[in-house]
Amino acid sequence: MRSSINFLTYHRKLFWFPSSMITMDSFDFTSVARYDDENRTFLPKMIVFDKDGTLGDCTPALRMWCSKMTAAVQRKCIDIGISTAHAEHIISKFHESIGWDVVVDDVVPSAPLSAGTWDEIVDVSAASLHASGLTIQHQEVLGWHQDLGDIHAEDLPLIKSLPRFLQFFRHHGIIISICTSDDRASTKTCLQNWEITHLVDYSICGDEVGKECKPSPEPLFELCRRAGVSPSECLVVGDTSSDTQMGVRAGAGFVVGVLTGSGTKEQLFSTGADIVLPSIGFLKGLLPLSTEPFIRYGSIADVMDIDEFDSTDEHIFKAKNELMYPRF
Ligand SMILES: O=C(O)COP(=O)(O)O
User: What InterPro entries would the database entry show (predicted)?
Assistant: First the structure.
């Protein structure tokens, strides 16, 4: 049934989908567990977005980081005369520690590389190299990482019209926050590139929270303190178990997992997601918000574009398949 292909017209454009492919109009929010019509009345005062894997596509950057760091480890092994077999073992343990799957050339779901702060990632990298027999100082590993500069500078947004998407919620009086494990400098660049700096009311980054990074509830508590809202008035949305766990531990009103990053549907549910969506584009249909106020600010075309957030983007297309064909 799922393999048959049909053609359908969807909002002025022609796309092909497997016949059972979900669309924004047909998506059944009640089919994705722990969600019922009652929840649909939940209207948050603040939406707390994760950045990497939720707002932006970080995978190419992480792939580049892993490849360059692996090359640095290889060079170091050659320099100090480590055998090829031992070097392969060291590299394999290094990949295991940060959560890099060489077979699929991607991050292991919710692994340190996609969910941790850079301090944590460098710490686990150095500890792993040391433990598998490479004599190396933490400082040298940190140097390799720092030499790579801002790896997220080229990240692309995961949905089209990200500014308009955030504006939609702001027009309904919802505060927009970002809680990321990435550094402030890199976050600043991403927000500028995506043209959303002025649309984000509050943000907190991995290098601003000390040891109390996600999945600790502290970053969310801090955002709530700044915004003057309680965690129960927040909707938290993210792609890894660090995001969902932070939301649950802080007592967030609603926790949403998205499949545009590294976490799987099962992992996000088992760590506290109330719902798992193909992408943040589906939040618009989740919340009891009318599009009418938005029409007053924009045109009908703007609203139509919002409905099409999920329609053409390759990432979202993949994420939809993911929802229908879970990894496990
Ligand atoms: O940069 C990272 O390692 C993770 O960042 P995120 O919290 O925005 O997913």
Answer: HAD-like_hydrolase_sf (IPR050155), HAD-like_sf (IPR036412), HAD_sf (IPR023214)
